[in-house]
């Protein structure tokens, strides 16, 4: 861990949301639609480093139209959740892993590093200021989604790393990511689009990867599917990940398999946590290449009994169907999650929400 250099002091307070308004949002938060009253900002300047750290009222940012991010997409982000436990204390899950990934993403996008202590300090400052927005997590999966991001705010049209960068943190109450809740989702395999390629930005959490997934997402919706699943760009043969989450397959013999990190897959914190939890749940985790053909054949033969997607936003979401141009296979029960996906989801949520003991030191108090 590192020493903090920034002090996120509150420079402007607002009481935008009334208590009744906030209660209504918290009762049915959905995902990513409403934001808390404040946000964090900091600015980095070449030669000076980070400064101007503050907590201020949530609201529009002022950007020059020539701000580099609007042209060349020099931007990265993270996603975490804050959970209110039964005793009222508020915790987040493995934020050091997000801080480390933020640093790796920054390196890939030629953005400045932020110290882990400053990253964590920003989370604490915002959660402390907007503490009333953290939902009760003693039942269900409600949380306050934390979205840190960093972008090239310098007004300059030349293509080079920006000399001025803005860090911002916003927060949004979150229920389940998919509108259908815990119902199994269906996946579409795009013939036309890849998400990332060898040597590209696939392993970085940058906005551009998500922009690249959207055309495939439209294709998925046109075929009645919820998400697209991307194959490796070289051979179009191996499963990589979904538009915004990682994927696991459950085998009848207890193996729990996820695509190995190929350099173009996002290294999900939920993904790596599930790989660790698996052993406690009598599952045998494996990271390796999984061909589309293996999924198809395994689902048909019954060797693959379940599939699920995972991510901070999605937690664990069962996958019921895999669809491509000309065919489809089904995995697991169709109306609800399979046994293994449900067990993993509960095990993970129980730790995050304080319903069970955190024996791994995964939680950090905010
Ligand atoms: C997350 O799971 O936190 C993500 O960043 C995925 C995004 C599609 C919401």
Automatic annotation (TrEMBL):
PROSITE patterns linked: AA_TRANSFER_CLASS_4
EC supergroup of this enzyme: transferase
EC number assigned by the record: 2.6.1.42
InterPro entries for the chain: Aminotrans_IV, Aminotrans_IV_CS, Aminotransferase-like, B_amino_transII, BCAT-like_C, BCAT-like_N, BCAT_family
Domain of life: Bacteria
Cofactor(s) needed by this chain: pyridoxal 5'-phosphate
Keyword Aminoacyl-tRNA synthetase: no
Pfam families given in the database record: Aminotran_4
Protein name per Swiss-Prot or TrEMBL: Branched-chain-amino-acid aminotransferase
Classification lineage: Bacteria, Bacillati, Actinomycetota, Actinomycetes, Micrococcales
